[in-house]
């Protein structure tokens, strides 16, 4: 079970850090079309979400790995889960697929349940 939790934590951590960094970067027109949700948000809002994703990505791995305040790991996972609920609602409103958001939410729930 511990190995499964580590795999899920690392996948969540890497995925959210990369996704968060991506929200700070301006992409070309082709990428803008794939991320049409960007037009619903201001640049500051996207950067705030990106910062939360980066912090959550590190928070879901580092506290448990270092043993320093390990309670932060399930709390970070819970925060990422809340972000995914919000993201799924945005995609649903835009009539876009949101399966990835639900998978990431399920992974976050696994971490929360396993680490609390």
Automatic annotation (TrEMBL):
**Location in or out of the cell:** Membrane
Q: Which InterPro entries match?
A: DoxX
Record the organism. Nonomuraea turkmeniaca
What membrane topology was assigned to this protein in its record?
A: Multi-pass membrane protein
Annotated Gene Ontology cellular component terms: membrane
From the record, give the transmembrane residue ranges: 6-25, 46-65, 71-90, 97-114
Say where the protein is mainly found.
Answer: membrane
The UniProt keywords, alphabetically, are: Membrane, Transmembrane, Transmembrane helix
Which Pfam family, an example, fits this chain? Answer: DoxX_2
Q: What is this protein called?
A: DoxX family protein
